[in-house]
Amino acid sequence: MLRAVVTYGSEGPQVLLTAEGGEEGYSEYTFADCAIIPDGESPGTKIESLEACDEGPSPIMPEAKEFFWGSGAFVVFALLMRFFLYPRLRRSMDARDASIREAHESAEAERDAARGEVSSYETALAEVRAEVAARIDAARSTVEQERTARLSEVNDAIAARRATASAEVDAAHGAARPQVGTAVATVASRAVELATGRAPDPNAVSRVVDELMNTGVSQ
Amino acid sequence: MLALEFPPINEILRWQDVFPSFNKVAAISVLAALIASVIFIIAGNADGSKAPRGIRNFAEAIVEFVENQIILPTMGSSGRGWTPFLLSLFSFIYLCNVPGIIPIIQMPATARMALPLFLSLLVWVVFIGVGFKHQGLGYLKNSLFPPGVPAPLYILVTPIEFISTFLVRPFSLTVRLFANMLAGHILLVTFALLTKELVQGDSVALIPVGILPFFMLVFLTAFEVLVAFLQAYIFTILAAVYIGGAAHPEH
Question: Is residue A82 one of the residues assigned to a domain?
Answer without folding.
Answer: no
